[in-house]
Amino acid sequence: MTILQVFNTKTAEIVCQHQVEINQSFPKEGWVEEDPQEIIQSVYECIERTCEKLAQLNVDVSSIKAVGVTNQRETTVVWDKETGVPLYSAIVWLDLRTQSTVENLINKAPGKDKNHLKHKTGLPISTYFSAVKLRWLLDNVDEVRQAVLSGRAMFGTVDSWIIWCLTGGSSGGVHCTDVTNASRTMLFNIHTMDWDSELCSYFDVPMEILPTIRSSSEIYGYLKSSSMAGVPISGCLGDQSAALVGQMCFEEGQAKNTYGTGCFMLKNTGTTPVISDHGLLTTVAYKLGRDVPACYALEGSVAIAGAVVRWLRDNLGIIKSSAEIETLAATAGTSYGCYFVPAFSGLYAPYWEPSARGIICGLTQFTNKSHLAFAALEAVCFQTREILDAMNQDSRVPLAQLQVDGGMTSNRLLMQLQADILGVTVVRPTMSETTALGAAMAAGAAEGVNVWNLRSSHLPKVTCEMYEPQINTDESEFRFARWKKAVQRSMKWETTETGVFTVSKNVGRTA
């Protein structure tokens, strides 16, 4: 989905907004794609419709001082810089087609260690990250390979594609990305804060197709067309970093969890990267200006959160809208011993196990759809608990409260379950779309724009809802232990083994 939101820089309140749904396609099992042309057209549509709404509110478009961009970080686009035409569909972050590519890359690592590059990237070799998607494109799409050989190809995550298009495209568009998006490619050295020639060589990726790396808050260029022509683009953050900024987690030790399609917890570790020993990622949190130091974060990524609700709606049909799950789950008030591991795309942190697949266990004749709905919500909370436990072990500083955002946080039952399962206070801002706010803050604070002050004394006060744990620790630990048993049963489900099966054509016939 593409959303454009206009914020008041004094209050952080939304002035107006417009959103456009983006279609996802699933050409094969495990493949997830989007159309880059549809993405950029949706951006232009949001710009025009938002400007119309501003006019209806008697707000002059000239009052918009800057534009920030935030995006799905690992979703990968390759396009022709001469024609401006994408050379293939955008491969979405949770796409699994690169499993064999990942296996090949791990096999050439010393000791076949998936963490072989972690000292430079902060990341394990996984289907999740952009470099393996780009490697797949180079190996499997002739148009991409030929464009690279002829010097016409440009690579980027969605932020790069959008900024390039908005600043002129093939007529002088700016090909750049920010440090937070670059840190999710596996081609970026999180210590030198630049593309790394050894990493590019490992993935056999030509460095000349990569975007220029910039900070998260500076003027990259100006909109060349649309009703906002001339407005600077001056903020760029990957979506989870944008949420961290929007939650104003600027102090070391502060953490937020975003509940969207997946679930992403980031903990600010300050200006020193912390390499995880417990399955977490080390990523760049933000760099708010060219001449200021970058801040880092420990991150736990869960592939399936809100997506499990859509699965119950679209695949099983037990709810008609995503909002119905809260009411349905509340009618049971318990999963009645049913546990759901939604490993549809394998398991991300802290396991990084692509062979896992979704399972539902603990079923009895008494189990019904309301228990399944409750188990689905619990699954989101249990996955978050796994991340929090790993984060506490790595940082050695237990988290006292968790700030949350994202579409699923409107589900009050989910938020209470999360507090119960974590055993800590869950804090939800009443304005849950903090990702867009973070991008707006970065854009407004950029040198040359200077309409947003990010000093702690000038940050706006945001009203919040608080959820306190309401069950005892023994019950929480018992339920979590049962969940961990279910996770183990989901492991190693998908293998490369093939079998031959025959079906008798005489079944059901009488002699």
From TrEMBL:
Domain called Carbohydrate kinase FGGY C-terminal: residue spans: 256-446
Pathway: Polyol metabolism; glycerol degradation via glycerol kinase pathway; sn-glycerol 3-phosphate from glycerol: step 1/1
A GO cellular component annotation in the UniProt record: mitochondrion
Catalytic activity reported: glycerol + ATP = sn-glycerol 3-phosphate + ADP + H(+)
Stretches assigned to the Carbohydrate kinase FGGY N-terminal domain: 6-246
SUPFAM superfamilies assigned to the protein according to its UniProt record, in alphabetical order: Actin-like ATPase domain
Enzyme type, top EC level: transferase
GO molecular function: ATP binding; glycerol kinase activity
Keywords assigned: ATP-binding, Glycerol metabolism, Kinase, Nucleotide-binding, Transferase
InterPro entries in the cross-refs: ATPase_NBD (IPR043129), Carb_kinase_FGGY (IPR000577), Carb_kinase_FGGY_CS (IPR018483), FGGY_C (IPR018485), FGGY_N (IPR018484), GK1-3_metazoan-type (IPR042018), Glycerol_kin (IPR005999)
Keyword NAD: no
Cross-referenced Pfam families: FGGY_C (PF02782), FGGY_N (PF00370)
GO biological process: glycerol catabolic process; glycerol-3-phosphate biosynthetic process; triglyceride metabolic process
Protein name, entry field: Probable glycerol kinase
Species, as recorded: Takifugu rubripes (Japanese pufferfish)
